[in-house]
Design brief:
The structure holds 3 protein chains of 3 kinds.
Chain A: H1 2-32, H2 37-40, H3 43-68, H4 76-95, H5 101-128, H6 133-156, H7 176-194, H8 196-206, H9 208-213, H10 218-244, H11 258-268, H12 273-296, H13 302-319
Helix pairs in contact in A: 3-7, 3-8, 3-10, 3-11, 3-12, 4-5, 4-6, 4-10, 4-11, 5-10, 7-8, 8-10, 11-12, 11-13, 12-13
Chain B: H1 2-19, H2 22-48, H3 53-65, H4 68-93, H5 101-119, H6 127-159, H7 163-183, H8 217-236, H9 238-248, H10 250-255, H11 260-287, H12 299-309, H13 317-337, H14 343-356, H15 359-369
Chain C: E1 10-19, E2 22-32, E3 37-41, H1 48-55, E4 63-68, E5 71-73, H2 78-83, E6 86-89, H3 101-106, E7 112-113, E8 116-117, H4 119-133, H5 150-163, E9 168-172, H6 180-195, E10 199-204, H7 207-213, E11 216-221, E12 224-230, H8 236-244, E13 262-272, E14 278-288, E15 291-296, H9 303-311, E16 318-323, E17 326-327, H10 333-339, E18 341-344, H11 348-352, H12 359-363, E19 374-375, E20 378-379, H13 381-394, H14 411-424, E21 429-433, H15 441-456, E22 460-465, H16 468-474, E23 477-482, E24 485-490, H17 497-504
Parallel strand pairs in C: 3-10, 3-11, 6-9, 9-10, 15-22, 15-23, 18-21, 21-22
Antiparallel strand pairs in C: 1-2, 1-4, 4-5, 7-8, 11-12, 13-14, 13-16, 16-17, 19-20, 23-24
Helix pairs in contact in C: 13-14, 14-15
The chains are: A mainly alpha, B mainly alpha, C alpha/beta.
Membrane topology (chain C): Peripheral membrane protein
InterPro entries (chain C): AAA+_ATPase, ABC_carbohydrate_import_ATPase, ABC_transporter-like_ATP-bd, ABC_transporter-like_CS, P-loop_NTPase
Organism (chain C): Natronorubrum halalkaliphilum
Chain lengths: 337, 376, 526
């Protein structure tokens, strides 16, 4: 018991340390440039950070469920690309280059359904055919990187879409998807820790045999979580698109590593949905810091500031490496019967 | 280079011996089936997109092997795929998932250009100066690539940080940081595109055998030498035995006296060194300068597919690399001569990787159809 | 107690279970009366756990029938067994460690209220069970299981079975992981359960525990049920005789040499286990050239860690290991291999052999830096192949094919190959950990003879085994390990199996037969 207590405390300390470093670093920069902190950390910055964090948080929630149940879904990035692209494509199909708000919503919903269907196939390969989880997950990313721009080129004659429409904000200048995400985060916390399904998910990842002898079908639990993870990542991609208003398919596409950051977000959040969402917020803020620096006129290369989240991930992961993975992750489970 | 000849012969001997092995046959079967299935799906998609799949298939062949130019282009790409594939195979064979070959490749290539460009003013213009510059540049790439890979190795061994995530993050960092350098300190003020200064004229491999300015026999020779060297290391040295055994069964490796943590770091370093070398050859043989790395091909990522297709066997990486070189080369051809968007090739590569990950699928299919039904 | 009208809770008739050529259970009959405790007694590998796994639906029997409460049953899975009211408490607990006690108990059978788990209903039900059997589990229902000590985890397992309605409980070596105080507590719990009408099967190899708690005792040996006796009508001596067998299978081989110089000296060795707990507490011993030290003990008393400390696989907390006079405490595993410390590992599947390698490639395992197989980092596969073929021939490995995969060999042949390879190191010290576990009789004999030949050649040998007859046959001195220390060192020629059995359970003998005088708080020096 001292061991868990120790790592728990260590974790909190490192987390606090990371935050302090970031704040002090930010403050240092600000003071050197003679710019007051209140101009850097504005309400607009907060809004944009939350908006930036939303897709990451959604992917993280999905990935967290899959991994909790013992399946490492490393393909989140790929599913986000599918989600973003299919949202753009359905928006274009519904309303051309000037879709209405209703069509934006419908497109996001259609996109979530499409991502779910793709994930079903992925889940069958992973669970039924015992695919190597890491290699298959990478493949999903490659497939997304290839086929999304490919189809975009077929539809629009270019890897990126023309300007479509982004979702209108509702209360407090916030996107409705931000509110939806908050609800999803809370709901997934409740399901994971307060319902029998959550118990089963946790047991499937930690000791599938115990769950099996308790009369619950481990395979079914894992199917559910993997499909959920793809659906959430797809929704994350769709939300990203609904915020941006057009699809970008050059380079690493508009998803640009957010799925990977999502994985780190839930590791950082120690598999707790609320923690993961908090971590996503941190990464979202780091992402937006760049814009903020430019607005207040701090001369830092945009490219370097963009790297901050990645550097943070490596530091966090190394200092925090002992994040406790569910013990049966990556092992396929076959029941005795 | 006689040592390499011996090594190559030994490697070929072993490859021939492996051929008799049922599991190796099975792996080759799975590789072929994966590729074929992925290509079939690709053609279906072409048809679904309203293009003629037969025409597309024809262009694939013409674009990869249809002319001397196409062959030279295929070989050029193959050099990169084989080398990067070897880098991946080293790590995967030892049970370490180095997904960061792309980043190590970029860091290596940039190190070559940066060191050559900064050193060139101090060296004579002639061939000797050029050779010294190339040696220094290559060395810089190997060292930079090795160090850039050693970092996630150390973090995994001593910090317990998952190397899959850290190497992917380091890819993004390499792209961003090198991109910043290329656009800033090292940018060529006279160039319109974002790139570094050109390498001096005395730096470059001679174009013997092929006319293609991007393909040199030196590059091909270096690739074959690396394949042979890594094959020899894996099969004929104590270090290679330690490495491969760690990948198969870490507990047995530890029992036999392997220090698991140190092995992770050495494997990553060796893998990154080869990735760095790939970058050096890319910079010297193909580009002649270094561009913004976000626009460089995904050689390091596709190399994962190459290695998996070859079951992480260094000799098997050669045909797998040629296949990918051919696909990429066909892609260049298709980009100009076809309406089918070239990104399809990337998608097909993704499908190959996906199918390679699911040997069980093909085993079951083989059983259903009665092929190889004797296997359990 | 002798209300024999109700059908027995469990009746196993003529159960036979084979694994390949090995017969794990041979025509075994077993009857558990309702409301009683029946001990299943036998040494490791005698087939106790196999028999119970057949009952619990983990294995299908090859022959024989099972009936529960008078009805013939076949269980395809533990789930089926559970539904019929049979619960099993495994040695490795089926608990989800980071989840709380309450969550573990209700897992799969959660009461719900509006979709959420109804914790208060669960709590009430668990508290009811706890108060009925005087359990303390309700005191820590919200604690993660991993924070409990093993005794408490075991009680959680029992409650879990009861919560799911188990009437028949199988406890597989439940005392193996417990402290003496916890054992006492478990006995009380078992008594309460019996009084409440539950029927219990108690798997053990500890005579005194079986005598204390059980109504009936069935002794298994080599897969056969030797006899079933009533506890009040038997003695420890009788049971020991049944467990070990009257006929002594192996004669002690007379030694031909006199021990020479000390080859391996261990002084004040302390070591920690995987979870940081102390597993070896101050062990001292010396093994001389031409001598075999046997280390006996119930598994989990620190033998594995001790062996890993000697062979360089685990770093020591304090103390020293000396090899032919020089201190090797801090040297690496590879250094020790090269120095000449050979090791027949405890687990041949994960350590001793690489499963996917051929025998040729396995012949190199551990030899990869040693001449003539390696020269300046380069391997000589011809030499390795010759070596593999030599081992195959000399150690009678079947199939005699150096290119055969390790998995194609039977356990005995795998083990002979490993023994051959380790002897091939030409070592000065040989550490053999359970050298004949899961090995057929012929191979056992062969391996024993080779070890004794090695002694004659002047090697210092350490043999760790839980098989007493093996230790008695091979060892010149027997150190009995209990809770991380040598509880006694005895002479194999004079000690009896019964005495060894007592020592293994931590009871010191009245009249010392060993060398050292037992110090009050410290283990005995060997």
């Amino acid at each position: 018991m001292s061991l868990t207590e120790y790592t728990g405390r260590k974790r909190v300390r490192i987390g606090a340390l990371a935050l302090v470093v970031l704040i002090v670093g930010g403050a240092g920069l600000t003071v050197r440039s003679g710019i007051a902190l209140d101009r850097l950390f504005t309400a607009g910055f907060a809004t944009r950070s939350v908006e930036m964090a939303t897709p990451i948080a959604l992917a993280a929630i999905g990935g967290l469920y899959a991994e909790k149940s013992g399946v490492f879904n490393i393909g989140l990035e790929g599913f986000m690309i599918f989600g973003a692209f299919s949202a753009a494509a359905s928006m274009y199909a519904l309303g051309g280059t000037s879709p209405t708000q209703g069509q934006v919503w419908l497109a996001v919903a259609v996109s979530a359904v499409i991502s779910t269907l793709i994930t079903v196939a992925f889940a069958v390969l992973l669970i039924r055919y015992e695919a190597d989880q890491i290699v298959a997950g990478l493949a999903v990313w490659f497939i997304g990187l290839g086929f999304a721009p490919f189809t975009a080129a077929i539809i629009w004659g270019s890897r990126s879409s023309p300007g479509l429409a982004s979702v209108n904000s509702v209360a407090f200048g916030q996107s409705p998807f931000v509110i939806l995400t908050v609800l999803i985060v809370l709901a997934s916390w409740v399901v994971l820790y307060r319902t029998r399904y959550g118990y089963w998910v946790q047991a499937a990842g930690e000791n599938p045999e115990a769950l099996d002898t308790a009369g619950v079908d481990v395979t079914r639990v894992r199917y559910a979580t993997v499909i959920f993870s793809g659906a959430m990542a797809g929704l994350g991609g769709a939300v990203l698109l609904a915020h941006a208003g057009n699809f970008v398919g050059i380079g690493d596409t508009m998803v640009e590593g957010r799925g990977w950051i999502g994985i780190v977000a839930y590791l950082f959040g120690n598999y707790n949905p609320i923690g993961a969402a908090g971590a996503a917020l941190l990464f979202g803020a780091l992402d937006m810091l760049n814009v903020q620096f430019q607005t207040v006129g701090i001369e830092v290369s945009a490219r370097l500031v963009n790297l901050l989240p990645y550097v943070a991930v490596i530091i966090v992961l190394s200092a925090w490496g002992k994040t406790r993975m569910p013990s049966s992750v990556g092992e396929s489970y076959e029941s005795e019967d | 280079m006689s040592g390499d000849d011996d090594g190559l012969r030994g490697a070929l001997d072993r490859a021939a011996a492996y051929m008799l092995d049922a599991t190796v046959l099975e792996r080759i079967g799975i590789a072929i089936a994966s590729t074929a299935l992925a290509l079939c799906i690709g053609l279906l998609i072409v048809a679904a997109a309203g293009h003629n799949p037969l025409l597309f298939a024809n262009q694939l062949v013409i674009g990869s092997f249809g002319s001397e130019r196409a062959v030279a282009r295929t070989l050029t790409f193959s050099v990169l795929f084989v080398l990067a594939g070897i880098a991946v195979a080293i790590a995967f064979r030892a049970g370490v998932f180095n997904i960061g070959v792309q980043g190590q490749f970029i860091v290596g290539g940039f190190a070559t250009v940066a060191s050559i460009v900064s050193l060139a003013p101090y060296l004579p213009d002639g061939t000797v100066g050029g050779i010294v510059l190339m040696l220094v540049g290559t060395l810089a790439a190997v060292v930079a690539g090795g160090l850039y890979a050693a970092l996630p190795g150390v973090l995994k061994a001593y910090g317990d940080a998952n190397e899959i995530i850290t190497t992917i993050m380091l890819n993004f960092i390499a792209i961003g940081f090198v991109g910043w350098l290329v656009a800033g300190r090292f940018s060529d003020p006279e160039a319109t595109a974002t790139r570094t200064e050109r390498l001096p004229d005395n730096v470059g491999f001679p174009s013997v055998v092929f006319d293609d300015p991007n393909l040199s026999i030196v590059g091909i020779g270096a690739t074959i030498a690396v394949v042979a060297l890594i094959a020899v290391i894996m099969t004929r040295t104590s270090f290679g035995y330690d490495m491969v055994t760690s990948g198969h069964q870490e507990s047995a490796a530890t029992y036999s006296g392997v220090d698991a943590k140190r092995m992770i770091v050495s494997t990553m370093t060796l893998s990154g060194m080869v990735a760095g070398l790939t970058g050096a050859i890319f910079a010297i043989m193909i580009q002649g300068y270094f561009t913004d790395p976000s626009g460089i091909g995904n050689y390091g990522f596709d190399a994962i597919a190459v290695s998996l297709l070859a079951a992480n066997n260094p000799v098997g990486v050669v045909p797998a690399g040629l296949l990918f070189g051919g696909l990429e080369s066909a892609g260049s051809h298709i980009q100009i001569n076809s309406d089918v968007p070239v990104q399809l090739i990337d998608g097909i590569v993704g499908l190959v990787v996906l199918f390679v990950a699911v040997p069980e699928l093909f085993r079951m299919m083989a059983q259903r159809t009665g092929l190889g039904g004797d296997r359990e | 107690m002798t209300a024999r009208k109700t059908p027995p809770a469990v009746r196993l008739e003529s159960i036979t279970k084979r694994f390949g050529d090995v017969v794990a259970n041979d025509d075994v009959d077993f009857t558990l009366e309702r409301g009683s405790i029946h001990a299943l007694l036998g040494e490791n590998g005698s087939g106790k756990t196999t028999l119970m796994s057949v009952l619990y639906g983990l294995y299908d029997q090859d022959e024989g029938t099972i009936s529960v409460d008078g009805k013939p049953r076949t269980f395809d899975s533990p789930r089926d067994a559970m539904r019929a009211g049979v619960g099993m408490i495994h040695q490795h607990f089926q608990l989800v460690k980071p989840m709380t006690v309450l969550q573990n108990i209700v897992l799969g059978h959660e009461p719900t209220d509006n979709g959420l788990v109804d914790e208060s209903a669960a709590r009430a039900e668990i508290e009811e069970i706890c108060s009925r059997y005087d359990f303390d589990v309700d005191q820590y229902l919200d604690t993660p299981v991993e924070e409990l000590d093993l005794g408490a985890q075991q009680r959680v397992e029992i409650i879990k079975s009861l919560y799911r309605g188990a009437e028949i409980l199988i406890l597989d070596e439940p005392t193996a992981v417990l402290t003496p105080q916890e054992v006492e507590r478990l006995m009380d719990v078992m008594n309460d359960l019996r009084e409440d009408g539950h029927s219990l099967i108690f798997i053990s190899h500890k005579l005194d525990e079986a005598l204390t708690i059980a109504d009936e005792i069935t002794v298994l040996r080599d897969g056969e049920a030797i006899d079933t006796v009533r506890a009040e009508e038997t003695t420890e001596q009788d049971l020991a005789r049944m467990m070990v067998g009257r006929e002594v299978l192996f004669d002690r081989l007379e030694r031909e040499t006199v021990p020479g110089e000390p080859a391996l000296e261990v002084d004040g060795l302390r070591m920690h286990g995987d979870r940081g707990q102390e597993q070896v507490s101050s062990v001292d011993f010396t093994v001389r050239e031409g001598e075999i030290l046997g280390i006996a003990g119930v598994q989990g008393n620190g033998q594995s860690e001790l062996v890993e400390g000697i062979t360089g696989l685990r770093s020591v907390a304090s103390g020293s290991v000396r090899f032919r006079g020089s201190d090797i405490t801090g040297t690496s595993r590879r250094d020790r291999i090269e120095d000449g410390i050979a090791y027949i590992p405890e687990d041949r599947q994960t350590e001793g052999l690489v499963q996917e390698y051929s025998l040729v490639r396995n012949a190199l395992l551990g030899n990869q830096t040693i001449e003539p197989y390696a020269n300046g980092g380069m391997l000589d596969w011809t030499a390795v192949r010759d070596h593999a073929e030599e081992i195959i021939q000399e150690f009678d490995v079947h199939p005699p094919d150096a290119d055969a995969g390790a998995t194609s060999l039977s356990g005995g042949n795998q083990q002979k190959f490993i023994v051959g390879r380790e002897i091939g190191h030409d070592p000065d010290v040989m550490v053999a950990s359970h050298p004949t576990r899961g090995v057929d009789i012929g191979s056992i004999e062969f391996i024993h003879n080779r070890l004794i030949e090695l002694r004659a050649e002047g090697l210092a040998i350490v043999v760790v085994s839980s098989k007493l007859e093996e230790i008695q046959k091979l060892a010149d001195r027997i150190a009995v390990m209990y809770e991380g220390e040598f509880i006694d060192v005895v002479d194999p020629e004079t000690v009896t199996e019964e005495e060894l059995g007592l020592l293994m359970t931590g009871q010191r003998l009245e009249d010392e037969e060993g060398t050292g005088e037992s110090e009050s708080d410290r283990g005995v020096q060997a």
